[in-house]
Specification:
Elements lengths: L4 E3 L5 E3 L15 E3 L25 E5 L7 H12 L3 E5 L4 H13 L7 E4 L1 H7 L15 H4 L4 H7 L9 E3 L3 E2 L1 E5 H7 L7 H11 L5 E4 L8 H10 L10 H15 L13 H9 L3 E6 L4 H5 L8 E4 L8 E5 L2 E4 L6 H11 L2 H11 L6 H4 L7 H12 L1 E3 L7 H16 L5 H15 L1
Parallel strand pairs: 1-5, 4-5, 4-6, 10-11, 13-15
Antiparallel strand pairs: 2-3, 6-14, 7-14, 8-13, 9-11, 9-12
Helix pairs in contact: 1-13, 8-9, 16-17
C-alpha cells in the first residue's frame, strides 16, 4: 500500500554544535533554526502541494521513520490492527529543525498533529510541561510498565508529578563492546570487574593501540561521564557524591596515569570511534546500537567485535535510549490517538516495529518472541536481567547542559582545571539548568 506522506518545508537553519546522541536511529545536532510561531490552534506544519485536508483521516502522526524502506508496510499493518486511517507528516531529517518544529507545535497548542515521535532530549524538555497528555491511566498500565525498562521510563519520560508522557518505541543500549581478537591474543576470557578492566586496558595498550576508546568530543562525552558515574554508584546530578569523584578520577587516570586512552580522542564522535574500533586501534569501547557499522565492515561476531557483559565496578549499569510516541495535549482526536498508542505499547505493535525497523522491543515479553538465532537477543536479555538500566541524565536545557559539562571535562583531563574545580562547576551547571 502506498500512503501519501507530507514533507515539511525546511526553514532557514543556523547550524550549531553537534549533539551527544547516537546511533543508527538518531542524528541529534543542536543549534537554532528560524521557526515562525502561529497562534494557538493554527497549524505550524507546512504541507507541500500534495497535502490534503486532515479531515480525511482519524489522526495525524509526525514521524521520523518515513524514509525507512519498510515504512509503508509498517503503516499498513498499524492501520489494519487499529482500524485507523492515519495521516503521516515526515519530520525533518535535520535534528535542530525537527526539535524546533516539535517545540513550536506543542508549546503553541497547534492541533494539526496528534501523535509525535520525540527523542530523549525533547522528553527532558517537555515532560514537566502540560504539552503532552499523561498516559499512565489510558495506555501504560502497571502490567505494561513492569515489562518496560522501568529505570528508563522513570528517568526519561516520567514527570516530577508522576505522569508518564510517552510510549517508548524500542530499547537501545549504550553497550560494552570488546575486540575478541585482542582478548584472545592477551589471554583474557572476560572482563568482569573494575580490576579486570584496568588490567586489560593496560595489556592491550602499545604500538599505536589503546586499551580503551571513548567518544569524548564535548557534546558526546556526557554519555561516557554518565556511564562511569553510574558504574561507581554515583549520581550525575549530585557532584558532592563520592562516586562521581571516583568516576572522574578514573577517566583522568586512563589518560594521564595509565596512558591506556589517548587525549586526542576528545575530538572523536561515534563515527570516528567506530572506524578506529573496526581498525583494531582499541581493545574496548562503549557504543550505541547493534553493530551495523561493524557488520558492514565484516568485523561483527563473537570472534571479532561483539557486545559483552558490562563489568561490575561498584555496580553494573548501562544506559538505554529510545524515541517515544507522545500525545499532543491539544489534539482534537484523542480517542483515535489513544487507540494508536495502545497498539504501539502492545506486544504486537512492538514486534511490528522490530520486524520492519529493527527496533529492539522495549517490552521484555515482546523481546522474548525474537528468534534465539538473533545474536543480540541473549546479551540484551542479560543486560536487562543483570544490570541497572537507566535513562541518560538530561535537564530541560539539555544541549546547554551537555555542552558545558563536556567543556569542563575536556579541561579537566587536559590538566587545565582540578577535580575539585570540575565538581564545583558541574554542580553549578546542574543547579543552573534544572
Amino acid at each position: 500500500m502506498k500512503k501519501k506522506i507530507v514533507y515539511l518545508l525546511v526553514c532557514s537553519l543556523v547550524l550549531g554544535v553537534l549533539s551527544a546522541c547516537q546511533n543508527e536511529v538518531q542524528d541529534n545536532e543542536p543549534g537554532n533554526s528560524n521557526i515562525e510561531e502561529n497562534e494557538p490552534g493554527n497549524s505550524n506544519i507546512e504541507e507541500n502541494e500534495q497535502g490534503k485536508d486532515n479531515g480525511d483521516f482519524d489522526l495525524t502522526l509526525y514521524s521520523i521513520m518515513t524514509t525507512n524502506v519498510n515504512f509503508d508496510k509498517w503503516l499498513e499493518e498499524t492501520e489494519n490492527a487499529t482500524g485507523l486511517n492515519i495521516n503521516v507528516i515526515a519530520a525533518p531529517t535535520d535534528s535542530d529543525t525537527r526539535q524546533q518544529k516539535v517545540t513550536t507545535v506543542l508549546s503553541t497548542g497547534d492541533t494539526s498533529v496528534d501523535i509525535i515521535e520525540i527523542n530523549d532530549e525533547m522528553a527532558a524538555s517537555f515532560k514537566n510541561t502540560d504539552w503532552c497528555e499523561p498516559l499512565q491511566d489510558v495506555v501504560i498500565s502497571d502490567e505494561i510498565y513492569n515489562q518496560l525498562p522501568t529505570g528508563y521510563v522513570d528517568d526519561m519520560i516520567t514527570s516530577e508529578s508522576g505522569n508518564i508522557i510517552g510510549v517508548p518505541s524500542y530499547s537501545g543500549y549504550l553497550a560494552f563492546w570488546v575486540n575478541q581478537e585482542i582478548m584472545d591474543e592477551l589471554g583474557f576470557d572476560k572482563i568482569e570487574t573494575k580490576e579486570d578492566f584496568i588490567d586489560y586496558a593496560k595489556a592491550a595498550t602499545g604500538d599505536g593501540r589503546y586499551g580503551y576508546g571513548g567518544s569524548w568530543e564535548k557534546t558526546y562525552v556526557f554519555n561516557e561521564i554518565g556511564t562511569f558515574v553510574n558504574l561507581f554508584g554515583g549520581d550525575y546530578f549530585d557532584w558532592t557524591n563520592p562516586g562521581n569523584r571516583e568516576a572522574l578520577q578514573f577517566m583522568y587516570d586512563m589518560v594521564n596515569t595509565w596512558e591506556v586512552t589517548p587525549i586526542d580522542q576528545i575530538a572523536d564522535k561515534y563515527e570516528q570511534m567506530n572506524q578506529k574500533f573496526i581498525d583494531g586501534k582499541y581493545g574496548m569501547i562503549f557504543m550505541w546500537g547493534t553493530g551495523t557499522d561493524f557488520a558492514s565492515a565484516g568485523m561483527l561476531g563473537e570472534d571479532k567485535l561483539h557486545i559483552a557483559q558490562v563489568p561490575k565496578f561498584e555496580t553494573r549499569s548501562v544506559f538505554t535510549d529510545s524515541w517515544s510516541y507522545v500525545l499532543n495535549s491539544a489534539s482534537e482526536n484523542k480517542e483515535a490517538a489513544i487507540t494508536f498508542l495502545q497498539y504501539m505499547a502492545s506486544v504486537e505493535g512492538m514486534m511490528s516495529s522490530f520486524e520492519n525497523f529493527d527496533r529492539y522491543p522495549a517490552r521484555a515479553d515482546a523481546a522474548e518472541q525474537i528468534s534465539d538465532e538473533n545474536p543480540i537477543k541473549e546479551i540484551y536479555q542479560e543486560y536487562r536481567d543483570t544490570t541497572v538500566v537507566r535513562g541518560r541524565p538530561m535537564l530541560p536545557q539539555t544541549m546547554e547542559f551537555i555542552t558545558d559539562m563536556g567543556t569542563i571535562f575536556q579541561a579537566y583531563v587536559q590538566d587545565k582545571i582540578t577535580l575539585d574545580e570540575f565538581c564545583e562547576q558541574a554542580q553549578g551547571f546542574v543547579d543552573k539548568y534544572q
